[in-house]
Amino acid sequence: MDDFQLAEALVREAGTLALLMRQAGLEGRQKTSISDVVTAADHAAEAYVLDQLRRCRPDDGILGEEGASVAGSSGRTWVIDPVDGTYNFLHGSTYWCSALALKAAGEVVLGAIFQPEEDKLWLGGTSRAATLNGERLTSFRPGGTGGESRSETPVAELSAATYIHPGWLADPMCAMPWHAAATSAATLRMFGSGSCDLGRVADGGLGCWFQHSCPEWDWLPGKAIVLAAGGAADVVRVNGLEWFIAGGTTAVQQLRTALESGSVG
């Protein structure tokens, strides 16, 4: 199977494994905070994907949220997020997913996201248009979903998905740019899974997205799919923090400007 077929199979299987383990009963363990948790399902799903990648793509590197680290010789690296939205997952919400990305020459070339309880699978990359459950995503393209492209829609007319831990709101270096971006949107959505959010930016369910300090596993799968859908993505450094942005071309530019307006000094 090719890389896209492999990625689709792996996120489906990892997500299904995690769901079955949750149904059998799980407890969570805190990592950095009460909302940053990990379960045995995170570890088991990552171990499964790791084993399959080492068998199917033995020359590739592997990086996983829960500690997987394999140095490859091919110049390619798979990035695994076994359960994105673990707090949601542990507390019975359906808003979580398994996600996978592939990097080559430092650039993301493939993303796959599977939300098991909603049966949604987003897939796309540099050599394949973005799809949701096999249907091509067109809302960023001329004549797309709804008859018009969202590429030029201003952020003031869009929902903006985001996430910020309550503790960061006490830090003006973070809170000021976040507030500037948040108040530029028509409305805010905060669901707790960046990859699920980015899949919905790609398919039109959400207008745009921004968040700070994203590790690769929280950013690359969704970035690949948004770009493959014809959207835009950017990263900007403000007050010592990196902010990650995705959506249509105009919304991404406007969110960047809003974030930069919160710069101190």
Question: Can you give a write-up of this model?
Answer:
The protein is an alpha+beta fold and 265 residues long. It is 34% helix and 31% strand. The chain has 7 helices and 15 strands. Strands 4-3-5-6-7-8-9-10 form an 8-stranded mixed sheet, sandwiched between helices. Strands 12-11-13-15-14 form a 5-stranded mixed sheet, sandwiched between helices. Helix 1 runs antiparallel to helix 2 (40-56) and helix 5 runs parallel beside helix 6. The model has no long low-confidence stretch (mean pLDDT 94).
Brief digest:
It contains seven helices and 15 strands.
- Separate helix tally: 7
Order of helices and strands: HEEHEEEHEEEEEEHEHEHEEH
The largest sheet has its strands arranged as: 4-3-5-6-7-8-9-10
Q: Report, as a whole number of angstroms, the end-to-end distance.
A: 52 Å
How much strand?
Answer: 25-35%
**Helix share, percent:** 25-40%
Q: What is the arithmetic mean of pLDDT?
A: 94
Radius of gyration: 18 Å
> What summary fits the major beta sheet?
8 strands, mixed
Indicate the topology.
Blueprint: H1 3-24, E1 28-33, E2 36-39, H2 40-56, E3 61-64, E4 69-70, E5 76-84, H3 86-90, E6 97-104, E7 107-115, E8 120-125, E9 128-132, E10 135-136, E11 159-163, H4 172-182, E12 187-189, H5 194-203, E13 208-212, H6 216-228, E14 232-238, E15 241-247, H7 249-261
Parallel strand pairs: 3-5, 11-12, 11-13
Antiparallel strand pairs: 1-2, 3-4, 5-6, 6-7, 7-8, 8-9, 9-10, 13-15, 14-15
Helix pairs in contact: 1-2, 4-7, 5-6
